[in-house]
Write a structure and sequence with these properties.
This protein is an alpha/beta fold. The protein is about 35% helix and about 20% strand. The chain is globular, with a radius of gyration of 19 Å.
Length: about 150
């Protein structure tokens, strides 16, 4: 998936990421994004981040993160939340601009979807449980999408 989306190199987050990056010739990174289990990856990200670098996450932490480890590097930690602008009525006009920008790049093929699996039997308790079971395995690469109407309680 990574190479398909333009990554120069892809590492396996199930294995020691620091060792994998060192094998690729990297002692530190200027930017790191955490897309799953923020608290699980924060310490390693903090160790790998370059001075004045940025770590970002889209996933709420379930435990306290020690931000003090970033101080001496003057590194930053940033949260990204897709509903922040709407929740706070902050520069709402930029939402449309961002969506138009992404749509243009999807249409041109510069960006590609990360959709890897689609469940099409409708949305109900059973299909939600099946989808959640797949995600709980922490093996999912890309996005899982449930499609169809709401189809009873099943």
């Amino acid at each position: 998936m990574g190479e398909k989306n333009g990554a120069d190199a892809v590492i396996d987050y199930h294995d020691n990421m620091t060792e994998q990056l060192q094998k690729l010739g990297h002692e530190s990174l200027e930017a790191i994004i955490i897309l799953h289990s923020t608290e699980r990856y924060f310490d390693e990200a903090a160790a790998l981040i370059a001075p004045f670098g940025h770590i970002a996450s889209i996933v709420e932490a379930t435990d306290t993160l020690n931000m003090n480890v970033l101080k001496n590097k003057s590194a930053s930690f940033d949260w990204e939340f897709m509903f922040a602008k709407a929740n706070y009525s902050y520069k709402m006009e930029t939402q449309g601009e961002i969506l138009a920008f992404i749509a243009e790049r999807l249409d041109s093929g510069e960006l590609t979807s990360t959709l890897t699996q689609e469940m099409t039997n409708g949305i109900n308790a059973k299909s939600l449980k099946e989808a959640h079971a797949l995600l709980e395995k922490s093996q999912m690469v890309g996005k899982l999408v449930l499609t169809g109407g709401f189809v009873g309680e099943n």
